[in-house]
Amino acid sequence: MTMAACYANYDIPLSHSLSTAALLNAQHHSNHHSHSHSHSHHQQHHQQAQQTHHHHQQQQLYHHTQQQQLQQHQQQQHFEAMMQENTTGNSFRQRKERMSKKQKEIYVNFMEQNPVINEHRRGDPILDQYWGKLADILNSVPQGAVKHVAEWKQTFDNWRYRVFLYARYNSKITGADALNPKSFKPFTQTDKRAYHFWIRNPDTAPPDLEKMRNVFVNLEETQQE
What pTM does this model have? Predict the structure, then answer.
Protein backbone atom coordinates (compact mmCIF):
# COMPACT_ATOMS: atom_id res chain seq x y z
CA MET A 1 0.00 0.00 0.00
CA THR A 2 1.33 3.41 -0.90
CA MET A 3 1.65 6.32 1.54
CA ALA A 4 -1.03 8.19 -0.39
CA ALA A 5 -3.39 5.25 -0.11
CA CYS A 6 -2.59 4.92 3.59
CA TYR A 7 -3.39 8.52 4.35
CA ALA A 8 -6.45 8.31 2.06
CA ASN A 9 -7.95 5.69 4.34
CA TYR A 10 -7.94 8.25 7.17
CA ASP A 11 -9.38 10.95 5.00
CA ILE A 12 -6.27 13.08 5.58
CA PRO A 13 -5.16 15.16 2.63
CA LEU A 14 -1.79 14.00 1.31
CA SER A 15 -0.38 17.52 1.17
CA HIS A 16 -1.28 18.11 4.80
CA SER A 17 0.20 14.81 5.83
CA LEU A 18 3.47 15.59 4.03
CA SER A 19 3.57 19.05 5.65
CA THR A 20 3.07 17.47 9.04
CA ALA A 21 5.86 14.98 8.37
CA ALA A 22 8.16 17.78 7.25
CA LEU A 23 7.34 19.78 10.39
CA LEU A 24 8.02 16.82 12.64
CA ASN A 25 11.29 16.22 10.85
CA ALA A 26 12.22 19.89 11.22
CA GLN A 27 11.37 19.84 14.91
CA HIS A 28 13.47 16.72 15.38
CA HIS A 29 16.36 18.34 13.55
CA SER A 30 15.88 21.49 15.63
CA ASN A 31 15.84 19.51 18.85
CA HIS A 32 18.93 17.60 17.74
CA HIS A 33 20.66 20.85 16.84
CA SER A 34 19.60 22.37 20.15
CA HIS A 35 20.91 19.32 21.97
CA SER A 36 24.14 19.46 19.99
CA HIS A 37 24.48 23.16 20.72
CA SER A 38 23.82 22.52 24.42
CA HIS A 39 26.39 19.71 24.41
CA SER A 40 28.89 21.97 22.64
CA HIS A 41 28.26 24.73 25.18
CA HIS A 42 28.74 22.23 27.99
CA GLN A 43 32.03 21.12 26.42
CA GLN A 44 33.21 24.73 26.14
CA HIS A 45 32.29 25.36 29.75
CA HIS A 46 34.14 22.20 30.77
CA GLN A 47 37.19 23.25 28.73
CA GLN A 48 37.13 26.71 30.31
CA ALA A 49 36.92 25.13 33.75
CA GLN A 50 39.84 22.87 32.87
CA GLN A 51 41.84 25.85 31.59
CA THR A 52 41.06 27.82 34.74
CA HIS A 53 42.05 24.86 36.88
CA HIS A 54 45.21 24.36 34.82
CA HIS A 55 46.05 28.07 35.12
CA HIS A 56 45.48 27.87 38.87
CA GLN A 57 47.75 24.83 39.04
CA GLN A 58 50.40 26.69 37.04
CA GLN A 59 50.16 29.64 39.41
CA GLN A 60 50.49 27.33 42.40
CA LEU A 61 53.45 25.60 40.76
CA TYR A 62 55.02 29.00 39.97
CA HIS A 63 54.61 30.21 43.55
CA HIS A 64 55.87 26.87 44.88
CA THR A 65 58.87 27.06 42.54
CA GLN A 66 59.51 30.65 43.62
CA GLN A 67 59.37 29.60 47.27
CA GLN A 68 61.71 26.69 46.58
CA GLN A 69 64.14 28.97 44.75
CA LEU A 70 63.97 31.47 47.60
CA GLN A 71 64.56 28.72 50.16
CA GLN A 72 67.41 27.31 48.08
CA HIS A 73 68.90 30.79 47.79
CA GLN A 74 68.61 31.31 51.53
CA GLN A 75 70.06 27.86 52.18
CA GLN A 76 72.90 28.62 49.76
CA GLN A 77 73.60 31.91 51.53
CA HIS A 78 73.52 30.11 54.89
CA PHE A 79 75.79 27.39 53.52
CA GLU A 80 78.24 29.97 52.12
CA ALA A 81 78.20 31.81 55.43
CA MET A 82 78.88 28.56 57.25
CA MET A 83 81.69 27.74 54.84
CA GLN A 84 83.14 31.20 55.32
CA GLU A 85 83.05 30.73 59.09
CA ASN A 86 84.56 27.29 58.79
CA THR A 87 87.27 28.53 56.44
CA THR A 88 88.06 31.36 58.81
CA GLY A 89 88.06 28.99 61.75
CA ASN A 90 90.06 26.32 59.96
CA SER A 91 92.75 28.79 58.94
CA PHE A 92 93.75 28.85 62.62
CA ARG A 93 94.10 25.07 62.57
CA GLN A 94 95.42 24.46 59.08
CA ARG A 95 98.59 26.43 59.74
CA LYS A 96 101.08 25.10 62.25
CA GLU A 97 99.74 25.33 65.77
CA ARG A 98 103.18 25.24 67.32
CA MET A 99 105.15 28.43 67.64
CA SER A 100 108.00 28.67 65.19
CA LYS A 101 111.53 29.42 66.35
CA LYS A 102 111.18 32.93 64.93
CA GLN A 103 107.92 33.52 66.82
CA LYS A 104 109.51 32.45 70.10
CA GLU A 105 112.32 34.91 69.53
CA ILE A 106 109.81 37.69 68.80
CA TYR A 107 107.89 36.82 71.97
CA VAL A 108 111.00 37.04 74.16
CA ASN A 109 112.15 40.28 72.50
CA PHE A 110 108.71 41.80 73.02
CA MET A 111 108.61 40.77 76.68
CA GLU A 112 112.08 42.17 77.32
CA GLN A 113 111.20 45.44 75.56
CA ASN A 114 108.02 45.79 77.64
CA PRO A 115 109.07 45.01 81.25
CA VAL A 116 105.74 46.42 82.46
CA ILE A 117 104.21 43.07 81.45
CA ASN A 118 106.25 41.34 84.13
CA GLU A 119 104.93 43.72 86.77
CA HIS A 120 101.36 42.44 86.48
CA ARG A 121 99.47 39.18 86.55
CA ARG A 122 98.85 37.66 83.13
CA GLY A 123 95.09 38.26 83.35
CA ASP A 124 95.35 41.94 84.35
CA PRO A 125 93.17 44.00 81.94
CA ILE A 126 95.91 46.64 81.82
CA LEU A 127 97.94 44.19 79.72
CA ASP A 128 95.22 43.59 77.10
CA GLN A 129 96.70 46.14 74.70
CA TYR A 130 100.11 44.46 74.95
CA TRP A 131 98.73 40.96 74.31
CA GLY A 132 96.75 42.26 71.34
CA LYS A 133 99.79 43.96 69.85
CA LEU A 134 101.96 40.88 70.41
CA ALA A 135 99.35 38.62 68.78
CA ASP A 136 99.25 40.88 65.70
CA ILE A 137 103.04 40.78 65.42
CA LEU A 138 103.18 37.00 65.80
CA ASN A 139 100.36 36.44 63.29
CA SER A 140 102.23 38.50 60.69
CA VAL A 141 105.19 36.10 60.74
CA PRO A 142 105.20 34.09 57.45
CA GLN A 143 105.99 30.77 59.14
CA GLY A 144 104.36 29.54 62.30
CA ALA A 145 101.07 29.61 64.15
CA VAL A 146 98.20 32.04 63.57
CA LYS A 147 95.95 32.45 66.61
CA HIS A 148 93.60 34.67 68.56
CA VAL A 149 94.90 36.47 71.65
CA ALA A 150 93.41 33.90 74.06
CA GLU A 151 94.93 31.06 72.04
CA TRP A 152 98.32 32.76 72.05
CA LYS A 153 98.23 33.22 75.82
CA GLN A 154 97.46 29.51 76.17
CA THR A 155 100.36 28.74 73.84
CA PHE A 156 102.71 30.85 75.96
CA ASP A 157 101.54 28.98 79.05
CA ASN A 158 102.06 25.60 77.37
CA TRP A 159 105.58 26.59 76.37
CA ARG A 160 106.31 27.75 79.91
CA TYR A 161 104.92 24.52 81.42
CA ARG A 162 107.13 22.46 79.09
CA VAL A 163 110.25 24.47 79.96
CA PHE A 164 109.60 24.09 83.70
CA LEU A 165 108.86 20.36 83.24
CA TYR A 166 112.21 19.88 81.52
CA ALA A 167 113.89 22.03 84.19
CA ARG A 168 112.55 19.73 86.93
CA TYR A 169 113.71 16.68 85.01
CA ASN A 170 117.22 18.10 84.64
CA SER A 171 117.31 19.14 88.30
CA LYS A 172 116.86 15.52 89.40
CA ILE A 173 119.72 14.07 87.38
CA THR A 174 122.60 12.95 89.62
CA GLY A 175 125.59 10.65 89.65
CA ALA A 176 127.28 9.50 86.49
CA ASP A 177 124.38 10.72 84.33
CA ALA A 178 125.04 14.27 85.50
CA LEU A 179 128.47 14.08 83.84
CA ASN A 180 126.93 13.54 80.41
CA PRO A 181 125.24 16.64 78.93
CA LYS A 182 123.17 14.39 76.66
CA SER A 183 121.39 13.01 79.73
CA PHE A 184 119.71 16.39 80.18
CA LYS A 185 116.68 17.68 78.32
CA PRO A 186 117.87 20.12 75.65
CA PHE A 187 117.08 23.83 75.72
CA THR A 188 117.59 26.64 73.23
CA GLN A 189 118.94 30.10 73.96
CA THR A 190 115.39 31.41 73.47
CA ASP A 191 114.09 28.92 76.06
CA LYS A 192 116.72 30.16 78.49
CA ARG A 193 115.84 33.83 77.95
CA ALA A 194 112.14 33.07 78.42
CA TYR A 195 112.87 31.03 81.56
CA HIS A 196 114.71 33.92 83.21
CA PHE A 197 111.91 36.25 82.25
CA TRP A 198 109.20 34.00 83.67
CA ILE A 199 110.87 33.28 87.02
CA ARG A 200 111.06 37.02 87.81
CA ASN A 201 107.26 37.30 87.91
CA PRO A 202 105.57 35.60 90.90
CA ASP A 203 102.55 34.93 88.65
CA THR A 204 104.60 32.83 86.22
CA ALA A 205 107.43 31.51 88.38
CA PRO A 206 107.33 27.80 89.33
CA PRO A 207 106.53 27.07 93.01
CA ASP A 208 109.60 24.84 93.26
CA LEU A 209 112.02 27.38 91.79
CA GLU A 210 114.51 26.98 94.65
CA LYS A 211 114.92 23.30 93.72
CA MET A 212 115.90 24.05 90.14
CA ARG A 213 119.56 23.31 89.34
CA ASN A 214 121.61 22.30 86.33
CA VAL A 215 118.67 23.33 84.19
CA PHE A 216 120.59 24.37 81.10
CA VAL A 217 123.38 21.81 81.00
CA ASN A 218 122.27 20.64 77.55
CA LEU A 219 122.05 24.01 75.83
CA GLU A 220 122.41 24.71 72.15
CA GLU A 221 125.69 26.36 71.11
CA THR A 222 127.23 24.50 74.12
CA GLN A 223 126.54 27.41 76.45
CA GLN A 224 126.01 26.21 79.99
CA GLU A 225 124.69 27.74 83.17
Answer: 0.57
